[in-house]
Design a protein that fits this description.
Number of domains: 1
Strand order of the largest sheet: 1-2-3-4-5
Number of strands: 5
Strand content: 5-15%
Length: 169
């Protein structure tokens, strides 16, 4: 199917929704492993699903599938961005450290404005996703424009605000 649409496996990311408890299903793990072996990236979307997160974390400690990306759910990102008392709630930072210790990329979902972007950057996430970054668009426009993998650009005023929050060393 990839060849039929002239897409290389490295261009494809399969997002598995965490709530499906896929790590308990041998057939799903087999399929994910085969996809990974041909170069498709596997990401876990909507992390964490509170009921199943610890089971998934236990599985990720030894998983053979090669999960490369955790997409932090909007609700987790909101806890950090809306928290006025602490810029780095413990649970968020624990999950972030866990992912980075395993060389996983972390994407913060639900980034709605400049404050969210700066907060997530200060926390150390690897990428941002949300209406504050860009509105959803038809795939044909995304693939034929220069918006793919373009870095988020901040105004000089934003950089100055960021420096006041966390001065450079």
């Amino acid at each position: 199917m990839l060849k039929a649409h002239n897409v290389s496996p490295e261009q494809l990311v399969i997002e598995v929704v965490e709530t499906c408890t896929f790590w308990r299903e041998p057939a799903i793990l087999y399929t994910l492993s085969r996809l990974r072996n041909i170069g498709v990236e596997i990401a876990i979307d909507d992390f964490p699903c509170w009921e199943e997160s610890e089971g998934l974390i236990d599985w990720l400690r030894t998983e053979p599938v090669g999960i490369k990306t955790l997409k932090f759910d909007r609700s987790l990102v909101r806890e950090v961005c809306d928290n006025k008392e602490s810029a780095e709630p413990r649970e968020f930072m624990r999950y972030l450290a866990f992912a980075h210790e395993r060389d996983m990329r972390v994407i913060a979902e639900g980034v709605e404005d400049e404050h969210d972007a700066i907060t997530m950057e200060l926390c150390g996430v690897d990428a941002l996703q949300g209406f504050g970054i860009g509105k959803p668009k038809p795939a044909h426009l995304a693939f034929h424009s220069n918006c793919m993998n373009e870095p988020l650009r901040f105004s000089m005023e934003t950089r100055e605000k960021r420096e006041r929050i966390a001065p450079s060393s």
